[in-house]
Design a protein that fits this description.
Distance between the termini: 74 Å
Structural class: alpha/beta
Length: 510
């Protein structure tokens, strides 16, 4: 006597179907779950037992075996409770077994039989639609699941009794209604008009927004580095529907998706410098997404950059290049998208006042060399814009407000439209990306022609500043963005290259 119901196992954003097979056989009473379950799955038997008892049902005095197939796939999480309970109810002939054939179920059971929220409902809903199955999920996740598509049948009960009554025809479970999150999309975002002074930094921030470039700001405490970084999300164009869905799936797996809504604003993540490597890159006991993936499509701001662990910063190098984070486990590798803009901020030394004779410590300049030496050359080579952010003078604080974020955002949107049109025109070339920061080498050769005066300038700078091949390419990408902001033709002028080089000299880091 066997009943079956389908659920899923998560391996990053790769979803695998799992067949929950429940057998009721003669023998000593036992409730066994097999098939590489983790602790949360093994504990499902007690939650299922209590939930059924809350319905007035007792498990039969027989051996119950729950097999999670395929057995070689690691099963993690509490979302196996509901499919296991449905399988047990089917072998007890309380619900018809053929009713489960077209269902994909997930949900955690409370001891009173209520079905509580679980992670990963949105990607599971997309998987269910691809497999032509009916999704059964908690009521608190129903509004999330409907974003997978109008054609997906969804049952979203709040209690297992509601699902039983629906099966028996005593109650009708209506399809959940989509709703957008009421969270403020502009929360934590600063208007650039509130930043007084720092015109060079604001110009660099505009370039970073237009081309998707990574940026590092170096300056004394209170200069406005954190304030400037919080302006960047307001300069970026809104997420496209496809981007919004991709970002929302990552947050769904991490359990940070706003209830009943998609992520509509570009993420802005600001982890503390004590964050561990798994917290930043991803991993842990369940290989959950890290900050680099939660910032996908948006901004990752790392304040007090040298205070992060050296190994943690070095682990950023691969996601910065490839746009994805790979979490290696014994049984599988999980891959998460991680295409983000890195904005770093740091003081010139540990005390923060290197170069100011009235405030710097007695260890200067050695303290600055040691502090800045925590950032390796390969890590810095992946940053396009490096600039000093000096202290703001009192007269500047009393000055008039500058341009608003909306004004700058219009110029950024225009530059990005130029990049997108150029990419579409060169779609046959491998490595094409819609923003300049990620264009491939073959594509770059076609869109970064240097003028007669710009070519010798770049050659001289490459020798003088000892630029690597990657460094030269990044200078060209920044110059291309500067030209796009100026609505210039494809040929890069000496002015464009000179400004790009001014952000590449690492003067403050030598």
């Amino acid at each position: 006597m066997v009943a079956r119901v389908t659920t899923v196992a998560f391996q990053g954003l790769d979803i695998r179907s799992v067949d929950v097979q429940v057998q009721l056989a003669n023998g000593l009473p036992a409730f066994t779950v097999v098939g590489l379950p983790d602790k949360a799955v093994a504990e499902s038997r007690e939650r299922v037992r209590c939930a059924l008892h809350a319905l007035g049902l007792s498990l039969p005095a027989k051996r119950i075996t729950v097999n999670l197939a395929p057995a070689d796939v690691v099963k993690e999480g509490s979302h196996y409770d509901l499919p296991i309970a449905l399988g047990v109810l089917a072998v007890m002939d309380i619900i018809p077994r053929d009713e489960l054939a077209g269902w994909l179920a997930l949900g955690e059971l409370a001891l009173d039989g209520s079905i509580t929220k679980v992670q990963g409902v949105l990607p599971t809903a997309l998987h269910a639609m691809a497999q032509d199955l009916t999704l059964v999920c908690p009521a608190s996740c129903g509004a999330e699941a409907v974003w997978a598509g109008d054609d997906l049948p969804i049952l979203a009960p709040a209690h297992i009794l509601e699902l039983l009554n629906h099966i028996r025809g005593n109650q009708l479970l209506s399809r959940p209604q989509p709703r957008l999150s009421h969270e403020d999309d502009k929360a934590g975002i600063t208007d650039m008009a509130s930043v007084k002074g720092q015109e060079t930094a604001k110009r660099a921030l505009e370039i970073a927004a237009a081309g998707g470039h990574n940026m590092l700001m170096l300056g004394p405490p209170g200069a406005g580095k954190s304030l400037l970084s919080s302006c960047l999300p307001g300069l970026l164009p809104p997420l496209s529907p496809r981007e919004s869905l991709d970002v929302s799936m990552i947050h769904s797996l991490a359990g940070s998706l706003p209830e009943g809504g998609l992520i509509r604003a570009r993420p802005y993540r600001n982890p503390h410098h004590s964050a561990s490597l798994p917290a930043l890159i991803g991993g842990g006991s369940r290989a959950t997404p890290g900050e680099v993936s939660l910032a996908h499509g948006g901004v990752l701001f790392l304040d007090e950059l040298p205070e992060f662990q050296r190994t943690t910063l070095e682990a950023l190098r691969q996601p910065l290049e490839s746009g994805e984070a790979v979490v290696a486990r014994v049984n599988y590798h999980a891959r998460y998208p991680a295409r983000f803009q890195l904005i770093g901020a740091m003081n010139p030394c540990r005390c923060g006042y290197l170069g100011d004779p009235s405030q710097e410590c007695t260890k200067a300049p050695r303290c600055g060399e040691e502090y800045q030496g925590k950032l390796s050359g390969p890590f810095l080579d992946r940053i396009d814009l490096v600039l000093e952010v000096p202290a703001v003078q009192y007269a500047e604080l009393r000055g008039e407000a500058g341009e608003s974020s909306a004004t700058v955002a219009r110029r950024v949107a225009r530059a990005r439209d130029i990049q997108l049109a150029r990419a579409q025109a060169h779609a046959k070339i491998d490595g094409v990306a819609p923003v300049n920061a990620h264009i491939g080498a073959a594509y770059m050769d076609n869109v970064t022609r240097l003028s007669a005066t710009a070519q010798p300038m770049l050659e001289k700078a490459a020798v003088q500043f000892k630029l690597s091949a990657r460094g030269v390419h990044r200078v060209l990408r920044v110059a291309r963005t500067i030209a796009d902001l100026a609505d210039a033709p494809d040929e890069l002028s000496q002015t464009h290259v000179a400004e790009a080089l001014s952000y590449r000299r690492f003067r403050a880091l030598n």
